[in-house]
Design goal:
Length: 181
Amino acid sequence: MPLLSVFASVIEFVLAAVMAVVVVYFTLRALIRTNTDFNEDKALLQGNTAVGLLIAALLIGSANIMYRAFEPATDLLRQYLTNAAMREMGLWRLLLGTVGNLVLAFFIVVATMSLSLRLFGRLVRTEKMRAGAELEKGNVAVGILLATVVAIVSIFVGDGVKALSKVVLPVPAAGAMRILR
């Protein structure tokens, strides 16, 4: 049994490493595409620190949320590999549930990050202050403020995604029990 646990840990490690790179890449591309206010790639190449801070916060926040969806999936995988009763549910059902869970979490990440930044931008908008325009100019204070908004949103949304993941992932049914008299 210890050898199987080691194997499960190695599988979990490899999946976590791959997941980290995939989440960073796809989240970055998706969040840049959803922002139509200005070109983040160009701003980064020009050395815009404010945009860099915001993108760093977006990546950390999205990784936090995706990890919250990934954690129940890896727990279920570990149980599947180490518990014979769990294997009755079938590997295809486990994989389908895990992929569906992660895709759902990804869409939640992109939607909540994009919408929360847009909503916050509208709430703080005055005739002298437009967060997107200030960010594009390189206003680091605005970059820090928006990065903080992203961090707070990821904390709150992360718990919701974890709870949703526990519902979405397949769990094998416990068998019927007979009580003898």
